[in-house]
Amino acid sequence: MNIELIKGDITKIQTDAIVNAANSSLLGGGGVDGAIHRAGGKQILDECIEIRNRQGKCKTGEAVATTGGNLPAKYVIHTVGPVWNGNEGKESKLLANCYKSALKLAESLEVKTIAFPNISTGVYRFPKELAGKIAVEEVKNFKSAIVEKVIFVCFDNENEEIYRKLLEE
Ligand code: AR6
């Protein structure tokens, strides 16, 4: 699998799928979630509401998919990262599950290219260095005959620096 690093706004990325760092309500919020719903338009929210009506809230570490609405990406894969409370073992596993669930769902949608934001490293306060390690490890461990390219989209300088180092290793 090809791994790339980009600094910028994930709503501008042209891939088959972009991943959203959502919350369990699936009804939108701030940060990257807010940016995706703003840029993608009402269709994404309508589909999220449908999913909620069908299966209830999205649990931490799980993922659901909607279309991309007005975004350049075809799909948005919404996953719910853990809130960092200092329980490293438990929260690391949940964050790893986000990447696993999103990649599995991407495969089932026959996604070839997928872009990830730095899940949980904003409002949810997950330590960026540890989150980066988990993200890179999960992507590298995911062997797929369908997904060809994963792009890590870093919004802030700190994450960009962390990912640059991790991907050089
Ligand atoms: N493109 C790419 N990355 C972005 C963008 C963007 N447009 N905007 C922010 N980031 P956060 P979380 C980065 O807080 O920590 C929401 O309210 C940001 O710099 O968006 O998982 C949800 O509804 C950071 O590195 O998500 C939840 O309630 C990363 O995205 C809660 O926040 C994640 O920051 C989820 O918190």
UniProtKB/TrEMBL annotation:
Q: Which Gene3D superfamilies match?
A: Leucine Aminopeptidase, subunit E, domain 1
Q: Which PROSITE patterns match?
A: MACRO
Record-annotated Macro domain positions: 1-169
Q: Which domain of life is it from?
A: Bacteria
Task: Check the record and name the Pfam families matching this protein.
Answer: Macro (PF01661)
Which SMART domains does this UniProt record tie to the protein? A1pp (SM00506)
Instruction: Name the chain's protein.
Output: O-acetyl-ADP-ribose deacetylase 1
